[in-house]
Amino acid sequence: MRFNPFSSRRAAPQPESAQSSYDEIAEMYHALWADWYLPAALPALEKLFFSKLRPGSRVLDLCCGSGHVTRELIARGHRVTGVDSSAALTVIARRELPHADWLVCDARSLRFNTRFEGVLSTFDSLNHILTLDELRLVFRGVRAALKPGGLFVFDMNLEEAYSLDLHQWTVNISESRVGLVRGVYDSASKLATTELIWFRKTSNGLWRRHASVVRERCYPVDQILDALAASGFHAIEAIPAPDAGIVTDLGFGRVFFSARAQV
Prior knowledge:
It is built from seven helices and eleven strands.
């Protein structure tokens, strides 16, 4: 998901609070950034995830946003559940793919009666988890949701992805909407803060303002690997996005992680 002022893209919707910070700007996200990630990331997803699934696998798309990766998984014949903390983005996902299985759920509180062959989380969604303890909660929930040997693939931004510290506003203008984005990265706290403001033209010709603040934290690779191992995963790999096949600036400072649930 999205425009990220630190690397020309925006991250996927996140479980930052009970009311997702993407709810207020869901239509802006969907209109401007939701379909930006998949074309650039497709080589990496094919190599690390799609090619390793059996036909008809049951897959969890974690932090699915408005469902563009979910759509790709369904098109490949898999049985997919899309999960996101943003109720507003889930409404859009249901509108776009009414026959898919959608669930509004915090990634830190996953509970499923069924088990999945694969869990995929894309577009640096898990950078929105702001503490290492909560990241471990996510990993443990994913492990519990996977069948033994099930595959977990996700990507996260490292600090270099936030190295372009843009204090000025970036503006996106169309006939019916204006989007403004400004990002700041604090290297001491490893915290990136993005302000998003959206003006949308209504049917009566007036303009409505929507605004949100989105926060992301970057973690050292070793911390992520250790958290995965402590959460019941093995065969753990960290693959820089360019090595996974991403040739655009989407790969700058991005790492894919692949792990299997212990049997």
